[in-house]
Amino acid sequence: MTTGTRTDTGEIIGILGGMGPAATADFYAKLVATTPGSSDQDHLRTVIWSDPTIPDRTEALLGNGPDPTPWLLDGSRVLREAGATVIAIPCNTAHAFVPRIADHVGLPIVHMIGEVARHLATLSPRIHTAGLLATTGTVRAGLYQEWLDRFGIRMVLPDAAAQDAEVMTAIHAVKAGTRNDGTTALLTRAARRLTGQGAQAVIAGCTEIPLGLPADAVEVPLVDPALVLAQALVRRARAKGRTE
User: Is the Cβ–Cβ distance between 138 and 94 less than 8 Å?
Assistant: First the structure.
């Protein structure tokens, strides 16, 4: 049972990370910041498996690299054996492979992209058009298109030139440890092009993007899927606590 704001409900969050390591660390920091409480004991128990050897998800989706599914499945099993009761994957592109592992993991996976779509549908004023900054793999896989369609939200994307020269260049820079004014300028230009196409919100649809694009650089809401996922996990844990 829970008392006060305690969220220790028997739920143990398994974070399947390493895609990339900085994004995993950022996600855990957001999970901690999102959890209400005033002491160590108020926070969620968490197991983190950060495996940077998982093959590049975009390269796999474009047919230029190995399938990361075996690594994702192995990592999920590590988390389950370590005691996790639910899995979170703070990598947008990796969600293209979730259908391949979901039935073999033995644990529920909180779907980050689905949570983002639901979050957008709750914003006021109502979001009719959202822009997406993401890896080319995420874009090509149609991950956000599929979910936003379910909620009647139109999606706009960078053109091919901006996707390569601005979005992917910035993502690779952040993965390499470079976060500077140049990286921010690339992502800001790409985001402003999306608002010029009518985007009422911009989805930072790669977990490296919020590390290089401050929310105040965009004139519309910048939706951080990692933060949305963290909030969903806290809600889940608290709801579970109320039923125990």
Answer: no
The set of catalytic residues is 91, 206
| CATH architecture for segment(s) 12-112+227-242 | 3-Layer(aba) Sandwich (3.40)
Task: Give CA separation, 239 vs 37, 57, 110, 227, 232, in Å.
Answer: 16, 33, 14, 18, 10
How long is the chain? 244
Cα distance between residue 182 and residue 94, in whole Å: 27
Q: What is the pLDDT along the chain (244 residues), one digit of tens a residue?
A: 334 444 446 899 999 999 999 999 999 999 999 999 899 999 999 999 999 999 999 999 999 999 999 999 999 999 999 999 999 999 999 999 999 999 999 999 999 999 999 999 999 999 999 999 999 999 999 999 999 999 999 999 999 999 999 999 999 999 999 989 999 999 999 999 999 999 999 999 999 999 999 999 999 999 999 999 999 999 999 887 766 6
Q: What CATH number labels 114-224?
A: 3.40.50.1860
Residues 6+ apart with CB under 8 A from 226: 23, 26, 27, 30, 90, 112, 207, 210
CB atoms within 10 A of CB 67: 13
**Is the separation of the CB atoms in 115 and 90 below 8 Å?**
no
